[in-house]
Sequence to fold (333 residues):
Amino acid sequence: MAQRRVSYTHTALDGRYKPMGRVRQTEKGIAMSWSASGLSFACSASRLVFFFAPYTQAQPVAVRLCADRYSVKYMLGGECPVIVFDTPEEIPHTVTLLRLSEGAEPLCLTGVQLWGEAPSLLLPPPPLPHRLLFVGDSLTCGFGTESQLGDNAFHTWEEDATHACPFRTAAALAADYQIISISGQGLHLNAAGQRGIPFSAFWQRPEYAAAGEKEQSGFVPDAVVINGGTNDVNGGADPSDFREAVRDFLLSVRAAYPEAEIVWYYGMTTTALSEDTQAVIRELADPKITYLPAETIKADDPQRCGTLGHPTSAAHEEAAQRLAAYLRRRMGW
Fold:
């Protein structure tokens, strides 16, 4: 039988896919700004073609496309990024497209083509039973998950958000997620000792660069996991200023999500300022705000330490196991 082609613009896809992470419809396309953001849909097709708006950053953006048991990583950039993916046979597939590496520019999906004898979109995957929100810095993004000890520069191909602690924790707990994080940023100061874009300024943005806008998706997490403080340490934040920033941030998260469990998970690369964070949590005396210490990696451990002292995929897997076990106990999952 002859092959047929069915095309869907990004607007035609609206309501026919499941958002993965924090995404939104824009004039340019379905905007994927944050780590592990993307979409999942079901279809019957023997070939899928994905079209994207121009991506102009100096380094290409890493993405992963999964169809059932198949998973392929791509590096996209330039004027007309395209992915062509052939499936083994024309049967119902669950297809997931995720952004792996961070960057100030959204990756915008403009359309999808399905090829086959009778290609079609099916009902999107259902929501999972739990919801998690992760807020953090490079440790939350997955900076350096695929790197080696001694690497001293950031490359997008070395960052894979699906190998980082937040994504793995969500997968272990059967939870839908949003991962909102920017490398180098802190609660009070960034890694360069400047104000930068503090957590309080970006955690509710629909897109990385959407300053002044607030997320409107209606995603309400059961638990919020915060990993912050490392860059405040690197930037030389005054402990009293840091404590005030932690207090203000926790109060803003609590105001946004009155019923959510809030966990501050910290210590993968340093324990400095951990006592200050715990002191604020004690002062707030909120029974649903707790502190979980992470296991600190050793700077000379080639299995767990990679680019610029960041944890590798192996270290993230261990961190995810610890966090997932803690959340199971706290949440009764």
